[in-house]
Each structure stands twice: as C-alpha cells, then as structure tokens.
Amino acid sequence: MEVAKVGVVMQRTPLSNRWQPFQWRPVEIVRDIALPEGGVRRLRDDPTDARWLFSGFEVQLFTAESEGYYLNISSPVPCWFVMWRMEEMDGSEMCAVQSVTLSYNEAARLMDGGERVDTIPASNDIVALLASFVEKHYRPEPKTKRRKPSFEGGEEVSKMVVPEGGSCER
C-alpha cells in the first residue's frame, strides 16, 4: 500500500565549533516534486540558513511493519524517520538523505546499524492513515506467562541443581 512519494527539506545552520562547522537536520516533509539530476535542489543558501530539497522517496506501508507503525502512533509525538549520511558532493561535504519511513522498528534497526536517523513530526492526516492501517493489520502477539522456578525447593529446582562432584550431564 503506497502512502506517498515525498521529499525531505534539510537545513544547514552554522555552528561555532572548529570540529563541526555546520549542523544538518530535516525540517520538513513535502509532497514529492520530480527533480532531475539525482533529486537534489538548493532552496536557500545564505550564511545563517541554507536548505536543500531531496526528492524521490516512495513511502509504503507493509503489514510486516505494522508493529513499528503502532509504536510510532502510540508515542507522544508520531513522526517521520529520516535516515541521512554525510557525503562528498561537488567537492564539499554535504548531507544526503537515504530513506524515509514511518516505522519505529525500521528506524531502530537503522540506528542499531550505525546510521543517523532524525525525526520530523507527522501531520494529522498521516497519523490518521497510520492509525487506520494499524487497526486493520496489527495484532499484538499474545503474552504468555512463564512460570518462574521456585527457589524454595521442588521438582524444578532439583532439575537445576548439580550434586557436588557430579557432572552437568543428565
């Protein structure tokens, strides 16, 4: 099920830091505008606020990710997750958006893999779309009680105990 083709507006602001001269962050998700030449367009370029549009991201909802969508809409601020990296472009270092998702679990997997993922709050219509999808497709796994062995004796404890001088094999 396709949600939309979207673009991401990334903002670059200067920092007073000799190791990192700029801060990059996503500031807006927009309906996609087809762009030639790799899908990147400079929107603004002044010393205090530069912005680029990265386009061409098709966001789809998958039933296998329904738990991730549920976790997203259950959070205090449901959001888009934007994965981006720093890359060399035209002789200078610049951010490059790699993917966009609405799944909390997918974003967590990306971060576990060492990727940079930032968030942008989702609009009410996207949250409503996700809620409808979750209602239709998400079925939480039933919780099962696991009986903990008693340390006050009994058959389960005797199975865990190895007699002194005895072997662990049974």
From TrEMBL:
Residue span of region Disordered: 140-170
Protein name: DUF3305 domain-containing protein
Organism field: Keguizhuia sedimenti
